[in-house]
Amino acid sequence: MWHLLPFLAILCARIKGLQITSLLVPPYVVNNSGLVVLDCQYTLTPYDLQLDSGLVVKWFFNNGPAPVYQWIPSQRPQDLGILRGRLDLDYRASDNNATMFRALSILNPTTDLSGEYRCAVSTFTDEDFMIQKMIVYAPEKRMEMTHTKTDSESANVTCAGYGLYPEPRIAFYRDPYTPRVSKPLQGVTIETSSRTGHYDISANMVFRDSDLRSPTIFICEICIPTTEYCRRKRLVYYPGSITSYHSDSRGLRGNVTTWLILLTLLIYH
Q1: For residue 74, how far is the Cα from the chain centroid?
Q2: Cα pseudo-dihedral 170, 175, 181, 182, rounded to 10
Q3: Which alpha helices (DSSP H) does the chain contain, by range?
Q4: CB–CB of 83/126 below 8 Å?
Q5: Cα–Cα distances in Å, from 1 out to 4, 7, 8, 15?
Q6: pLDDT at 16
Q7: DSSP letters of 111-122?
Q8: What confidence score (pLDDT) does residue 48 get?
Q9: How would you label 215-242 residue by residue, b for 16+ Cβ within 10 Å and e otherwise?
Q10: Do 61 and 84 form a contact (C-beta atoms < 8 A)?
Q11: pTM of the predicted model, to two decimals?
């Protein structure tokens, strides 16, 4: 039994030798935001460093059967499938001949590249793999918040965001407001629709003037799950007012123009 220990020690070293030690994939990046690197770090045995070891590095996307990237030392890296033409194939993660082209260097990733990335490293005698997820998110192209009077005693507050990815969430709050502490208002009606790979979302709620103090500040928050992205708008509402106030500057200019017209009519009549 004792004479087998050296052999077992060598065998264990071989097993632990080819090992992916870290898969550095950003959990989320902004759509079309420049160069993004996904790095697959691994260790090798002395045997794996030989040219005839059969070392191959492959990357797979979303459980696809075919690789989207492949590199064999002494050969030029290949971009394949959904990543064809979207990689910097000259990017080097190290100066070591056995690891230099181990990483993906994606040029301006877009939302269609959201998903799971699997790095697989293999030789003729061993293999290892690791999986990480990356979300490529798109902020809203436009966000609006308005209110309209439904009758003399209540108002409908509406908020909408357009062109987001992945599917966002939306909520209403009242001041005072503290992120991740304040509780969203209940009774909000939310609608979500998908178009050309992006999402539009809206929320509205009817408030009675008698339940509000004057003035009341409403806050609309649109966030993208699994990321830190949140966008907020505020709207000031004066109970009893018959004018619809908007949160953006265009709405405010419209109201000022209306009042100027009315004032002019009063002066000349």
Answers
A1: 36
A2: -60
A3: 5-17, 249-268
A4: no
A5: 6, 11, 11, 21
A6: 62
A7: GGG-EEEEEEEE
A8: 83
A9: ebebbbbbbbeebebeebbebebebeee
A10: no
A11: 0.79
Burial class (CB in 10 A: 0-12, 13-18, 19+), 178: exposed
Those residues of the chain that have pLDDT short of 70 are 1-16, 241-269
Q: Which two tokens stand for residue 130?
A: 């690791």
- Here the tokens at position 36 are 């993004």
At which residue do the structure tokens 């999402």 appear? 199
* CB within 8 Å of 224: residues ≥ 6 apart: 137, 139, 164, 165, 166, 168, 230
What is the predicted pLDDT for the residue at 93? 97
* Residue spans of beta strands (DSSP E) within the chain: 19-24, 28-30, 35-43, 56-61, 69-71, 78-79, 104-107, 115-122, 127-137, 142-151, 154-164, 169-174, 189-195, 198-208, 216-223, 230-237
Q: Which amino acid is at 257?
A: T
Q: What is the DSSP letter of 238?
A: -
Smallest Cα–Cα separation from 28: which of 232, 200, 193, 165? Answer: 165
Separation CA 55–CA 70 (nearest Å): 11
Residues 6 or more apart whose Cβ sits within 8 Å of residue 97: 73
Peptide bond into 46 cis (omega under 30): no
Question: Hey, what are 112's tokens?
Answer: 């269609």
The answer to whether residues 20 and 121 touch, using CB atoms and an 8 Å cutoff, is yes
Tokens of 113: 């590249």
- For residue 100, give Cα distances in angstroms to 27, 45, 143: 23, 16, 44
